[in-house]
Amino acid sequence: FRISVIIKFCRRLLETDPRPAFEIPTYMAMTSSSRAAIAISMAVQNSSLSKLQSFNGIFAIYKKQGPTSADVLNTLKKALLKEAGVANPNPRKRNKQPLKIGHGGTLDSNASGVLVVGIGEGTKMLTTMLAGSKKYRAIGELGKATDSLDVTGNVIEEKSYDHITKEAFEEKLKQFTGEIMQVPPLYSALKKDGKRMSVLLKQGQEVEAKPARPVTVYSLSLQDFSPPYFTIDVECGGGFYVRSLVDDLAKALSSCAHIKELTRTKQGQFTLEEHALKEDRWTLTDITQALQPCPKPSGQHKNVKKAKSKHMPTPSESKGGDGDTND
Fold it and tell me: Residues with catalytic annotation?
């Protein structure tokens, strides 16, 4: 009886589901046992897709050094759709895929660490993640400045750093704690005339620096000082660029510097050690366990949200932060 019910279900599914791996005539020519096996398999796949589409919340994954944040997100989406039984998923065709997903703060290709992901209704929570606090660990190199302020750029200046002591370095850090003014890097996701500044620069166009803007540094500490290299930990608010911090810090010490490595160790409540899922754990089971569900809004909150929905910035429209140069 159960098998006959499943077969009837599959016949209906074949008429509507975009994922069948065989044609209906082929299916009808199969033996009852073969039909039953396929029916059970399709029922399991349909259950997985339904489970995936029921996800509403945020979680964190680990972004390794190399790919852009967009590439990492597409890899995640493709893996989830494949596990759910969607044949040949193309994660870049958003309108043709049964999954809504986004990230809450870009990390550039050279950076690694926590990347917060929103799924389903959780994508509406990402603007809050962009504005929230983040922690980074940066390894810098004194004596060389690059046009991108990190190791991927071209060296544009070299200066001595022999005069810089650990004590002088730590003392100078105090000037960059609290509410400070910061000029964003030229190589960033900030836009000019609707185009990202980093893209314009790569096209050979001239780009003027954006004016300094207020940013917040909650804590800043020196973890290692082995000239020319140094390691700092920084906790900051939204729109902050660690690359600019390293550049400004070195200038204040009468030298120059750039970032060699950058790792986001925390974003909001998500930490690198406890929450960031590595690629081998990008599965329905692991995400089910890691997912932080969306809070249920009150009726009043729904009305306010509806009234403001036309004015809320999307993550790509936000004021940005460190790392969003290439994505």
Answer: 108
Reference 58, options 305, 290, 271; nearest CA is 290
| Number of neighbours of residue 175 by Cβ within 10 angstroms | 12
**Dmax (CA) of the chain:** 84
> Tell me, what's the pLDDT at 311?
37
Residue 283's pLDDT band (cuts 50, 70, 90): very high
**What whole-number distance in Å separates Cα of residue 72 and Cα of residue 243?**
22
- The radius of gyration computed from the CA coordinates of the chain, to the nearest angstrom, equals 24
Residue 49's Cβ-count burial label (10 Å; 0-12, 13-18, 19+) is buried
159 close to 143: Cβ distance less than 8 angstroms: yes
Q: Which amino acid, one-letter code, is at 245? A: L
Q: Tell me: the pLDDT tens digits for 97-125?
A: 568 999 988 898 899 999 999 999 999 98
Q: Which two tokens stand for residue 320?
A: 């940005």
Token pair, residue 110, equals: 């050279």
DSSP, res 51:
H
Total H helices, total E strands in the chain: 10, 14
Structural domains present in the chain:
2-53 (no CATH), 57-130+276-313 (no CATH), 134-267 (3.30.2350.10)
